[in-house]
Amino acid sequence: MADVTTTSLNATHDASVRSWVDSANADDTDFPIQNLPYGILERDGRRGGAVAIGDQVLDIGAALDAGWFEGAARRAAEAASAPTLNAFMALPPADTHALRAALFDRLRADGTSGDPARADAAKVLVPAAGATLHLPCRIEGYTDFLTSIHHTERHGKLKGLKDPLPPAFKYLPVAYHGRTSSIRVSGPDVVRPHGQWKAADGSVQFGAIEAMDFELELGLFVGQGNAQASPIPIDQVADYLFGFCLLNDWSAKSIQWWEQVLGPFLGKNFHSSVSPWVVTAEALAPFRTAACARPEGDPAPLPHLASEADQRQGAFDIQLEAWLSSDTMRSSGDGPARISQTNAKTLYWTFGQMVAHHTSNGCNLLPGDLIGSGTVSGEARSSMACMTEMTSAGAEAITLPNGETRKWLMDGDEIVLRGKAEKAGFRTIGFGECRGRIAPAR
Fold first, then answer.
1. 120 and 159 part of one domain
2. Which parts of the sequence belong to the Fumarylacetoacetase-like C-terminal domain (predicted)?
């Protein structure tokens, strides 16, 4: 049975609570006190765990030095103050909850000017603007899934497949193992890769690729790992979902479509971007929702993927967006254009099913492993979550608000992914940004 702190509501979800960090009380903040996502901050030459609160970043190590924590919360804070969050992610949910609850109590306003922890603000807080953030953890394994039925069917049709869905798609969450060494935190340029592809005239060429694409995805960081040859049961999988981030699995489609025999290779492994803040599964408890309903006639999940609890609340109601700005738009002072608006709750498979299936053969997941949802495309055209779908694989250009057109991403184009979860009766929480700009091939 999953620990109640991973899926159930508790005092840290109380929408009426405000923080003495005033910016955390703004209606449009991604990081109210009910969120408290974790990341890695570099401060005075040292890297350590941190928490986003309003427009500030809380240094967990500094809060430790200020005596903020005791008992289980102190032990968890010691793990979370390390240069990576792996040891913290490996803790059982009861321990990670203890730190979240302690942070919540220290940051909440008591209605007076004498909030006890406010005196430590100068020691523990730094402005988010200008803060240097790093990958939240050491990622030893990265698996990207293919769980949107709409994305998969559209791609199959664009490839001219008689059956656009792979035969296994409705029986298991399909995935491939990606490259961890080229995963970067939001911000650095994405250099257009060179590669080999087959041109329209049938010739095989090598050079800077044309068909450059983004992929709007949701990423999961694994918490507690599992021993090799010990699968994670679907009914217990909630204890293994530490938290979520935005993920842009940049794609060189020119390369991918030519080379893909065993699976994605050079078309995918040149750069993947993740947002710096990890929104915990506990923070997202209010936004759990029923798994996407399967169309009549689709096969029921096999026993290792079947769970009443997972079907009832295994999906997450998280709105996801992609925004594009070009060199021309920025030079003229125009803001970015939203080119996709979708929702993670439309995925055919839940993250619980992804993890359960991933380990079903005995594969051992490690704390901090990254699991991608795959492109989160919905049914509507506005919810297409990559350029390939929007342009029918480059056959039809899309038009931006300033009149520019795009079949694929051009040098200087910047993609910003955003996400938020909102529900009546609860504070809206967000993910920050996952940002990357296309730089010319070298």
1. no
2. 158-438
